Amino acid sequence: MKNRNDETDDAPRPAWETLVGQRVESTAPRRPARILVVDDDDGMRRAHERLLRSAGHEVQTAEDGVIALAVLEREWFDLVLLDMRMPRLSGLEVLTKLRADPRTVELPVLMCSGSDDMDDIVRCVELGADDYLVKPPRAQLLHARVRAAIERKFARDQERAYLASIDRERRRADSLLASLFPAPVVEEFRATGTVASRRHEDVAVLFCDVVSFTSWCERHTPEEVVTTLQAMVVRFEQVADHHGLQKIKTVGDAFMATAGLFDASEDPVMACVRAAGDMIDAVREFDTGWEVRVGVHIGPVVAGIVGHKQFQFDVWGDTVNTAARVEQHAKPGTTALSTAAWERVRGALETSSMGTLEVKGKGPMELFAVISDAEAEAPRPSPGAKNRKRRRH
Asked: How far is residue 31's CA from residue 153's CA, in Å, rounded to a whole number?
């Protein structure tokens, strides 16, 4: 006859007790992780928690699917160990919600169930589960499945971080290219890996140079010189952008830009003249006593990139050289035009002939001074006038 203790010993043991009683040779994971254990069976939930904590993982628990979703709403985890059959919200319903949420769509989920029914396994996989365990799993198998899921998760995280790093570097490179070269040059370089030199017709070239810059530098510290020059160049860049000019480069205190180089311009010379007027006004805003002189010429240029270690986009040709020479004949605070440039705006600006001057490398040339840059915005008069001095109406 069996005594009371014998009856107790013969009673079936809960599945979680079987799990707790298992020994694990090595539980140290390669990567400790944050794991959420979701199970309505208190004993099984605690058994899973104990085993996972013994492997070095940080574990949090939830007794049903509703609580689990609330926890996942406010906290992040590397893995969810999710019971399939629970009250209020089943594991399959929780899994469906996780895969529908962009924040948890890739969160690894290991489904657990007391059933090894193939239909249940297939359904879990179809809904996006990473693995399926029959409860109670062997401790070694639990650790192996958890380790594999975490390794995959960390590998994906590493890949995303790597791709994000590449994207950041690409954006930095794009930003650097955009600061060095005009947009069409950058686009061609991205598409072909090189930039072909080309001839461009009807390009207006502007040179702007600070008068008495060297003597001013001698009276100020290097820090003051660089800071003030930087502010001036930035202001000139803003003016150039506003009037549709393409900055080419700065050489010391000289600023060079073009109109009509890449984008077709109805009146490239007028764009340069308007920009010149704003540059003359802008430099007077600085407490330096500076004045600038500006020269404008129009004609064909060759544009391209030179250099191997330090690339530079530049334009060359007689048009460029002539614009530089014209600028040297301008008076401080004024804009000088070559004859070719003056022909383009003579009916729209008040100008005066500077006479025929000896231009280095060009010989005698008649140059023209813009009398009133502030009036450059006024509409053109009828083009019937033939005198070299015209006033806009």
From this structure: 11
CA distance 105 to 15: 31
Long-range CB pairs of 153-162, under 8 A, 24+ apart, other chains included: 153/33, 153/78, 153/79, 153/106, 153/107, 153/108, 154/31, 154/78, 156/106
**386 DSSP assignment:** -
Q: How buried is residue 268: exposed, middle or buried, by Cβ count under 10 Å (0-12/13-18/19+)? A: buried
Q: Mark whether 82 and 219 lie in a shared domain.
A: no
Question: Are 113 and 85 a contacting pair, CB within 8 Å?
Answer: yes
Query: Coil, strand, or helix at residue 183?
Result: helix
Assess whether 107 and 220 both reside in one domain.
no
Instruction: Report the distance separating Cα 222 and Cα 346, nearest Å.
Output: 43
pTM value is: 0.61
Considering the domain architecture, whether residues 202 and 146 belong to the same structural domain is answered as no
**Residue 266's CB: how many other CB atoms inside 10 A?**
7
Q: Which domain holds residue 295?
A: 198-375
CA separation for the pair 155, 66 (Å, rounded): 30
Is residue 108 domain-shared with residue 254, that is, in the same domain? no
Strands 58-62 and 34-38 come out as parallel
Beta strands in 8-130 (DSSP E): 34-38, 58-62, 79-83, 109-113
What is d(CA 63, CA 60) in angstroms, rounded to the nearest whole number? 10
From first to last of its 393 residues, what are the pLDDT tens digits of the chain? 444 444 445 545 555 455 544 444 444 446 788 999 999 988 889 999 999 998 899 999 999 999 999 999 999 999 999 998 898 899 899 999 999 999 999 999 999 888 778 888 888 888 889 888 888 878 888 888 898 888 888 888 889 899 999 999 988 888 888 877 888 888 888 888 778 889 999 999 999 999 888 888 888 899 998 999 999 999 999 999 999 999 999 988 899 999 999 887 789 999 999 999 999 999 998 888 889 999 999 999 999 888 777 788 899 999 999 999 999 999 999 999 999 999 999 888 899 999 999 888 888 999 999 986 444 444 444 444 434 443 332
Q: What CATH number has the domain bearing residue 11?
A: 3.40.50.2300
User: In whole angstroms, what is the distance from residue 86 CA to residue 102 CA?
Assistant: 24
Which residues does 119 contact at the CB level (< 8 Å), separation at least 6?
A: none
Does one domain contain both 143 and 240? Answer: no
